[in-house]
Amino acid sequence: GLQIANRLTSQFIGLGHAVTYVIEVISSDQLRSRCRCRLRSRILGNTELHLGYCTSVTGSVRPTPLEQRRNTKSDVRELNPSRTHYFRRPEAAGRSATRTNGSQVGANANETINLSLENVAANNIGSQQIKSVAVTPSATGLAAGSIAITGNGQSSTVAVNAGDSAKTIAASLNGAVGGLSASASTEVEFSVDETKTKGATGVPVHISIGVGSATVKFVGVTSTADLADQLKSNAAKLGISVNYDEAKGTLQVKSDSGENLSFTSDAVGADAVGIKVKDGSGAYAAAATPLAAAAAGVIVATGQISLDSAKGYSLANGATGTSVTDLFGAAQISSKKTSVAQTDVTDANNAANAIAVLDKAIGTIDGVRSGLGATQNRLTTTADNLQNIQKNSTAARSTVQDVDFASETAELTKQQTLQSASTAILFAGQPAA
């Protein structure tokens, strides 16, 4: 009984310490969760600022007030995790490298609950990205093929049909593996060689532009300004936005949905108009493609595709065709991380890319917070169970001690009774004086 009581006493003390440890871990996890909640709020604030950049930035002009606000928020974002401590340990806030912590939750060895902490510093969280190259316009657009995708423990193959638009391909890639998002747009820069359209030997250009199912014919184009005026008049019908910079003489047309832009023209003068397609990184092709070939048929401009995911992934040419090579410039390509700290807002394209990076960063933080919440629930349940076991152990120890005490008392009573009886017998056997 004494051994059992001592064992239960040891168990009782161990359970008491285990409950204390669990409560401390719960408090630490709550601190981590609050830290990530504040971090998420800061990133959301940065997202709002980047949205402001997308609507206020023209070319490479930087709105200084927004830039200052963005830098201020970035400083606070970085400060938040690095200055949060628990028991003088900054890593409790997840500022250090990704790690797994084991929390003791029992009275015996190896009774632990493991919690994996992901580094949520600004230079670590962000988006794994792949950007398409500028596809050279051609008579048929993209060739048929397939794209093999591997990532997040999954694999998938997406078919590409001949002449598919960036919009169609992005829709197929979106969600092909868990966490993968795809966006598309088509942006083309026009140039008109006025030496071929004006003067005694000049020939005005007659060209038809199709976007999706809509087509508009433009007649008598002699300059970039002429084409810009006609495009602006028909922008709503074609579903495009037109940006003409008179000072620079640049004309840019964009389909936000990523539709193909198709061009047909008269046999004479088409070579006066050239187009450059923008790639996924925001740069236009180095050389313009003249629309002279459109005289014999159609020239198709395919847009750009941007892929984002919180986890790494890779693309490769599928069993048919060379779609990855055509779209992304290599037969096989792996994603590269763009962290929150690497984002900039030097132009509208970078600001838009930063929004995608911040979106994935928010998703990462939400995932970490979800894991912390689940662990807190487990720890809370564990603490309740430990306290119940501790109460039961206390009651069991008391019962054992009571039984043991009763047994010892009975034995003592027995011995005292025997002693009294023996004494009485001895006295009874003595002769009378």
Summed up:
GO terms for molecular function: structural molecule activity. One of its GO terms (cellular component) is bacterial-type flagellum. This protein has seven helices and 18 strands.
Mean pLDDT: 79
Computed over alpha carbons, the radius of gyration is 37 Å
Helix count equals 7
Distance between the termini: 50 Å
Summed up, the domain count is 2
Query: How is the main sheet built?
Result: 8 strands, antiparallel
Indicate the percent of residues in helices: 40-55%
Query: What structural class do you assign from the helix and strand content?
Result: alpha+beta
Number-wise, the strands total 18
Overall 3D shape: rod-shaped
- In what range is the share of β-strand residues? 15-25%
Unreliable stretches covering 5 or more consecutive residues: 57-62, 72-99
Write down the secondary-structure element order.
HHEEEEEHEEEHHEEEEEEEEHEEH
Subcellular location: Bacterial flagellum; Secreted
Family: Belongs to the bacterial flagellin family.
Pfam families: Flagellin_C, Flagellin_IN
InterPro entries: Flagellin, Flagellin_C, Flagellin_C_sub2, Flagellin_hook_IN_motif
